[in-house]
Structures are given as structure tokens and as C-alpha cells.
Write a structure and sequence with these properties.
The complex is a heterodimer of chains A (306) and B (288). Chain A has 306 residues and is mostly helical. Chain A contains twelve helices and two strands; from the N terminus they run H-H-H-H-H-H-H-H-H-H-E-E-H-H. Chain B has 288 residues and is an all-alpha fold. Chain B folds into two domains: 63 residues; 219 residues, Orthogonal Bundle (MetI-like fold), CATH 1.10.3720. Chain B contains 13 helices and no strands. The chains are: A mainly alpha (306), B mainly alpha (288).
């Protein structure tokens, strides 16, 4: 056997397992899905004889569905607010735990812990907190009596339930993002900060003109991660609100906190419209791809400017 | 000296604020523990109180341990099997793939690597429905069951986990000097032996990152097991078991929280042992 054939044999044998798995679960389903989105595919289509090509009908139907349009808008709202909340909290925490605190390593680990537990479980914990623990706080402390009123439960109205999801999202993710900021802040040369201090720069000025600009690269990473993860949020949505409470829009009952990922899932398995769900998944993908490309582009540009 | 003194009040404020935030962050877990030791009545009446009898926690744990909808011992075993087998295979297969993709300078090698990287932007939602019908088709054609089996879910985790893992191995292997491998070839080492004997051991740091990132994802994942393993299956992972239980025993918070506590304990124990690697691995994975 020559060296060349040995090399190419090893090349294919070494690649074979991942290629096989990747083709089975990504490539083939991706192409099937691209086709199904334009057909009348449903769980019953196989029974009554084959798929029919329906053009853009699934997409049109989606964009006429108030529940989908609503889901789209709250997903945007959730993503933006969640991104801001997570990054502000995470950066603040990072500044605190890179200071000269006595127990800073314990704090870092503590803030990080929620990230180890799955979103599904975290959602249930917070459902308990919002529905039981907080009202109980209202019963104990007279000044906070309004918390005990069932009408004031955060999860009972759709705007406040969305806020509740942001609270959980921030709690879940801030510790992880904090760790990325910590790595960036600890890489800043100490001499730079010392020199600025000697020149009389206040802590605020040092933060604004040294720490934040030198963390630009970390910002690109954290913004991207929080954007993508917020946009794809599913687990917390399922366990915390299951999409509820119900509300009315354009004369139709819709779910008040149903983010896109949950809307896609429900379209397929509750409304039983697989092809429509598939079309929505494509819309979801394109929108996510476009906003994340814009975000990375803008941040990279800022990185250079700073 | 003067500066030292003027910084002190600021430090105390920072110290107190951080400690308060720390308590706030961990308080939800404390609540889970406190309420796992209460009766159903106590939980609804006094969710914030200290439990009247800690012995209740044992009763609740026994109830969850023997519960038909959680099947805790079996779920714990399933989660462990799925996570460990997937991790071992993702780690080995992606390392191999990453290595040949770096060391083979052909057009096809570049194209394959590009496809892996590009696939990372594709959300699971796009492939999840066709994946189910495709798995069904495969079963009809070959008789090999992929839905509701270990085989199917592990195959899925390898396929979805490989791109990021290959990308990370690829980046690391690029920095390993080629001379090392050339020397081994001169000494009469076969190509595949070079990988297993020389390269794979050098990859230990990046392997840790790959294992941590994939491990946390697979252990906590809910949507993929929900679709591939399904509801009411003999094999169910811990997140499936918890959601199964919470769905069947709505508002039975004493038991739901005990189930949650028991779902968290293995992760927390593991984290305490491997804390350093986990934090490092997750940060390294993000920055790459």
C-alpha cells in the first residue's frame, strides 16, 4: 500500500462515524424539511396518499395567523430585553468578583451554578416562586400585602409573565456570561489601570475608557450567545408558563407568552400542522441568521473602532 | 496610605452587595431544599417557613424514588447511559475527524470542514420534524429502530454535537507542530497509530472542554429526548421524568420540588468534583 492510498483510507475511515451521524440527523432532515415546508405534509398525509406541492401556502398561512405574528413580536421583545438584562447583570457581577473581595471565588461559583441546571427544571422552580413563595411573602409582611392578591401574580398577565421569563432567563444565564467577562477583565494589563489611577482617573473614567473598550471582543461573544440563546428559548417557556396565560388578539384566542420555538412545537403537535410548523422553522432560522450576522458585524466594527 | 483608607468604605459596600446578590442567586435552591421537607399542606400554606419536621424529606424522597411517573433509578441510569456513551463517542469521533481534516490538504477536506462549521448556525427546530419522519422511514426500510431507543438518541447527539466539537479540535490541532508526526512516521509508525498514540493524548485540555460543553447540554436537554424518546417510553431521561411528573401531579409542590431536588443532586455533586474544569471548559468553549 502506498503512502497516498493509506492516507486517503485513514481520512475516510476516521471521518466515517461523524459523517454518518451528521448526514443521518442533519443533512437528510435538512433537505427533507426544505421540501416539506412547501407541501401539505402532515401526520395524516401518508395515510391519504402522498405529499402534494402547495407552493408558499404554508408561509402565507403563517403570516396570516395572529398567534404566529404575536409570537414573533414577543420573541423579539423577549430577546432584546433578555440580552440587555443578562449582559448588564453579568458585567456588573464580573466587576464585583474581579475586585478585591474576600470570597470572590465562592461568589463566582455561586453565580454560575444556575447555569448547570437545565432550563426545564429552573422554570418549575420559578413557577413555584412566583405562584407560591411571593404571595406568601405578601401574607407575612403587611407592607407587601398586595403580593398576596391573586390578581397580582406575575404569571397571571402576559406582560408581567414575559417579565418573569426575563427574570428567570437572567438568573439562569448571567453567571455564565459573567465568567466570560471575568476572563476578559483579568486579561487587562494591570499597568494600564495603575497608570490611569496615577494620572488621576476616577474609577468611572477607568471603567469607561479602559475596561469596557478592552472587553470589546468579549462583548461580541456574549452578545452573540445571549442573542441566539434568548431567541431559541424553549425549556423555560414550557415549564414556567407553558405559553400562558391566554389572551385575545384580532378576535382570536392566543397564548400570551408563547415564544417562537414553542409556537413551532405547538403548531406541529397540538394543531397537527407539520408542514406549517416546518415553514415557520425556516422563517425562524432566516430571521435568527440575519439578526445574528448583523449583530456580529456591528460588534466587530465597534471592536476595531474602540 | 491615604488612598488605602479612602477605598475602604467602597470595598465594604461591594462586599455587602455581592454577598446579598449571592444569597439572592442561591435562594431558589434553598427554597427547593426547604420545601422538599414539607407536607403538601405546609408547602401551600408556608412556602417560606422552616420545615416543621426534616424527616419529611425522607418520606418525599421515597415517594419520588418509587413513583411510577418518575421512575428515578431507571431515569438516572438512562440519563447516565445516554450522556456517557454520547460523550465518549463524540469526543473520540470528533477528535479523529478534526485531525484528518487538519492534516489532509485537499479540496474535499476543506469542503467537509466548511459544511460542519456552517451547520452550527442551523437551529434544531429546522430539522426536528423531518428527523422524526426520516427515522421512521429508516426503521421501515431496515428494521433498525431509531425512535424511542438508545441507538437513535445517541446517534442524534453525535450528529448534533459533532460540528462544534470538530471545530474546537480543529483549532487546537492546527497548533500542534507537524514535526512530531513526521518523526513518528520515520520511526515506522502507521498513520492511525500516530493519532491514537501521539495526537489523542496531546488533546487532553481541549477534550476536557468538549466533554464539559457537550455533557452539560446533553444531560439537561429536554426537546431532543422529548421528540426522539417520546412520552410514556420505558427509557426516559431525568428532564423528561421531571416534566412527566410535574404534568401528572399539578400543584403537588412538595413532591415536584423533591423530584427537582433529586434531579439536581447528581449535577451538583459532579460539579463540586470537577468545578475547575467545568468553569474553564465552558468559558473556553464560548470564546472559541
Amino acid at each position: 500500500m502506498t503512502k497516498r492510498t493509506e492516507s486517503s483510507l485513514v481520512f475516510w475511515i476516521f471521518l466515517a462515524p461523524v459523517l454518518f451521524a451528521f448526514i443521518m440527523v442533519m443533512v437528510i432532515p435538512f433537505f427533507l424539511g426544505s421540501y416539506y415546508a412547501f407541501t401539505n405534509w402532515s401526520s395524516s398525509a401518508r395515510v391519504d396518499g402522498g405529499l402534494r406541492f402547495v407552493g408558499l401556502q404554508n408561509f402565507m398561512e403563517s403570516f396570516r395567523d395572529p398567534a404566529f405574528l404575536y409570537s414573533f413580536s414577543i420573541t423579539f421583545a423577549y430577546t432584546i430585553l433578555n440580552m440587555i438584562a443578562i449582559n448588564v447583570v453579568a458585567f456588573a457581577l464580573a466587576l464585583l468578583v474581579t475586585g478585591e473581595l474576600r470570597l470572590k471565588n465562592v461568589y463566582r461559583v455561586g453565580f454560575f451554578v444556575p447555569n448547570l441546571i437545565g432550563g426545564l427544571i429552573l422554570g418549575y422552580i420559578w413557577q413555584f416562586i412566583f405562584n407560591n413563595a411571593i404571595p406568601s411573602l405578601g401574607r407575612i409582611i403587611p407592607v407587601l400585602g398586595f403580593l398576596a392578591n391573586p390578581g397580582n401574580l406575575l404569571l397571571s398577565k402576559n406582560t408581567s409573565a414575559l417579565a418573569a421569563m426575563i427574570i428567570v432567563g437572567t438568573w439562569q444565564y448571567a453567571g455564565y456570561i459573567m465568567m466570560i467577562y471575568v476572563a476578559a477583565i483579568e486579561n487587562i494589563p494591570q499597568e494600564l489601570l495603575e497608570a490611569a489611577k496615577i494620572d488621576g482617573a476616577t474609577p468611572w473614567i477607568r471603567l469607561k475608557s479602559i475596561t469596557i473598550p478592552l472587553c470589546a471582543q468579549a462583548f461580541t461573544v456574549t452578545m452573540f450567545l445571549t442573542l441566539v440563546n434568548s431567541f431559541k428559548q424553549f425549556d423555560v417557556n414550557v415549564s414556567l408558563t407553558s405559553g400562558g396565560p391566554s389572551t385575545m388578539l384580532m378576535g382570536q384566542p392566543i397564548l400570551g407568552t408563547e415564544l417562537l420555538a414553542l409556537n413551532i412545537y405547538n403548531t406541529a403537535f397540538i394543531s397537527n400542522k407539520l408542514s406549517v410548523a416546518q415553514a415557520r422553522a425556516f422563517v425562524f432560522f432566516f430571521v435568527l441568521a440575519i439578526i445574528s450576522i448583523i449583530q456580529v458585524y456591528v460588534n466587530k466594527k465597534r471592536e476595531i473602532e474602540l | 496610605m491615604k488612598q488605602q483608607r479612602s477605598r475602604k468604605p467602597g470595598m465594604i459596600v461591594a462586599e455587602v452587595v455581592t454577598a446579598l446578590l449571592f444569597i439572592l442567586f442561591l435562594f431558589p435552591f434553598v427554597l427547593v431544599l426547604l420545601n422538599s421537607a414539607k407536607t403538601s399542606f405546609e408547602v401551600t400554606q408556608y412556602p417560606l417557613a422552616w420545615p416543621s419536621r426534616w424527616g419529611n424529606i425522607i418520606d418525599n424522597v421515597v415517594k419520588i424514588w418509587t413513583s411510577e411517573s418518575v421512575r428515578y433509578p431507571s431515569s438516572l441510569l438512562t440519563s447516565t447511559i445516554v450522556t456517557v456513551v454520547s460523550l465518549v463517542l463524540i469526543n473520540l469521533f470528533s477528535a479523529q475527524a478534526g485531525w484528518v481534516l487538519v492534516r489532509t490538504k485537499s479540496k474535499i477536506s476543506q469542503v467537509i470542514f466548511f459544511i460542519f462549521v456552517a451547520s452550527m448556525v442551523i437551529p434544531f427546530q429546522i430539522v426536528m420534524f423531518p428527523l422524526l419522519s426520516w427515522f421512521r422511514t429508516v426503521t421501515v426500510a431496515t428494521g433498525i429502530r431509531l425512535l424511542r431507543t438508545y441507538l437513535g438518541i445517541i446517534l442524534a447527539y453525535i450528529g448534533f454535537g459533532a460540528p462544534l466539537s470538530i471545530f474546537m479540535f480543529h483549532g487546537f490541532i492546527k497548533s500542534i507542530p507537524l514535526e512530531l508526526e513526521e518523526a513518528a512516521t520515520i520511526d515506522g509508525c502507521k498513520k492511525h497509530q500516530i493519532f491514537y498514540k501521539i495526537i489523542f493524548p496531546i488533546l487532553t485540555p481541549i477534550q476536557a472542554t468538549v466533554l464539559v460543553l457537550n455533557g452539560i447540554w446533553i444531560w439537561n436537554d429536554y426537546l431532543l429526548p422529548l421528540l426522539v424518546l417520546g412520552k410514556g417510553n420505558d427509557i426516559m431521561t431525568i428532564p423528561l421524568a421531571v416534566s412527566n411528573f410535574a404534568g401528572a401531579f399539578v400543584k403537588q409542590w412538595d413532591l415536584i420540588l423533591t423530584a427537582i431536588l433529586m434531579a439536581m443532586v447528581p449535577v451538583i455533586i459532579f460539579f463540586l468534583f470537577a468545578q475547575k474544569y467545568i468553569v474553564k471548559g465552558m468559558v473556553a468553549g464560548a470564546i472559541k
